[in-house]
């Protein structure tokens, strides 16, 4: 079984913000694969279903971004999952342009508080990630204002396409493995910004 976790903040006021790329991608996967909502447990909203023949748990932590690890660690422990091989985390990345996605097998938090919380609670930074670009914060802006803000109409179109691509990437990881997905989505044709 795989745990697919999309990071974000619960509540209407945070819908469609830059920080909710993970939530938006989970919504896309749930819709595509008709994953029924199972309710709320372990401080998260979740559904159980199948993607690419694999049993999956699709999870949106309800802890707010900075405590995402509290919810994910509870799910991992309850279902006795190995976070290094059975966890895929989807989240926003300010080091990627809107519309870009990047797949990683492991890495540091890179200043992302949701990932920082997960590394602290899981005790490892070796878990699969699908990062969705939201663009760098404008000069002089507060980072929180940037990630909790919304996209321009033009960027939103690009980002909506990237959310679909992030969902495709999750499907590919489940079907063909992390290496195949990294080769496909991090390929030479994509603009690179190395962040391991």
UniProtKB/TrEMBL annotation:
Site location (Stabilizes the basic form of H active site to accept a proton): 92
Tagged with keyword tRNA-binding: yes
Subcellular location(s) of the protein: Cytoplasm
Enzyme nomenclature, EC number: 3.1.1.29
UniProt keyword annotation of Transit peptide present: no
Enzyme class: hydrolase
Residue positions binding tRNA: 14, 64, 66, 113
Catalytic activity, as annotated: an N-acyl-L-alpha-aminoacyl-tRNA + H2O = an N-acyl-L-amino acid + a tRNA + H(+)
Gene3D superfamilies hit by this protein: Peptidyl-tRNA hydrolase (3.40.50.1470)
GO molecular function annotations of the record: peptidyl-tRNA hydrolase activity
Annotated site residue numbers, Discriminates between blocked and unblocked aminoacyl-tRNA: 9
Subunit text: Monomer.
Functional note: Hydrolyzes ribosome-free peptidyl-tRNAs (with 1 or more amino acids incorporated), which drop off the ribosome during protein synthesis, or as a result of ribosome stalling.
Annotated protein name in UniProt: Peptidyl-tRNA hydrolase
Taxon lineage: Bacteria, Bacillati, Bacillota, Clostridia, Lachnospirales
Gene this chain is encoded by: pth
